[in-house]
Amino acid sequence: MAKKAVKKFDFMFLIIFLFGITIGIQFKAGYSERYELSFMDREIVTQINQMQQGNSEISRQLKYAKKKINAFENSSKESEETKQVREQVEELKLTLGYSQVSGAGVIVKIDIREDVNLGPLMEEKKWFLSILNDIKYYGGETVSINGQRIGPYSAVVLAGNHINVNSIPIVQPYEISIVGDRKSLLKYFNETSIMIDEMKGRYGMDVDVRAYENITVPKLDVEKKPKYVRR
What is the pLDDT of residue 87? Predict the structure, then answer.
């Protein structure tokens, strides 16, 4: 009799245990697992689930789009800053003479028919200095003398009996290549300059000036750095 009571108790315990598991499953189930709902309720639940899934997907796509937009804006801003820095560097290189330049301009050749060294005379009269200053005033932007680029640190001086440009000796004929305003430069060399008239008339020098559509002015061979400037 006692054994039957124990078996009956075990059987009832098993039923209660299984019933508890079933209730737990029902509480944890989502909308899609609530089959006890009516057909209309199940349709509403299905639509709610679909809307929630759709909203989640839209939210995810929106976050992704915002992330891409922010990345693009940051990238564009950085690219623009980089472009500006690069342009500033190129402008600085142009000013210092560290980049080759091409453009419209004139070429001036200075020589003399006689067998005379023009170096000492050019230095004595400071003609190179005057010509270079006038070139800037009359629209010259980039200049070279016998292939030597004239930069802010360039020196055109007499060394012995010849002219040095950037510490490089040059000899006549002197060829000055200028990229700049051709019309203004031609007027200066052919009409305006009293100094050029003196070079031709008094000293018998040949000053030939010709305009060109394209002239190439080379960059400085060696970047000359200031010795005494401190940062």
Answer: 79
Q: What angle do CA 157, 162, 167 make, to 5 degrees?
A: 50
Paired with 133 in beta bridges are none
Quick one: which of 118, 99, 96 has its CA closest to 109? 118
Identify each DSSP E strand in the chain by its residue range. Answer: 101-112, 140-145, 148-149, 156-159, 162-165, 168-170, 174-180, 205-217
Nearest alpha carbon to residue 110 among 230, 223, 203, 1: 203
Domains in the chain, CATH or no CATH each:
101-217 (3.30.70.1880)
Q: Evaluate whether 49 touches 32 at the Cβ level (below 8 Å).
A: yes
pLDDT tens string 101-141: 999 999 999 999 888 999 999 999 999 999 999 999 999 99
Rounded to whole angstroms, how far apart are CA atoms 55 and 70?
22
Query: Using one digit for the tens of pLDDT, what is the confidence trace for 12-38?
Result: 544 444 444 444 444 444 444 444 555
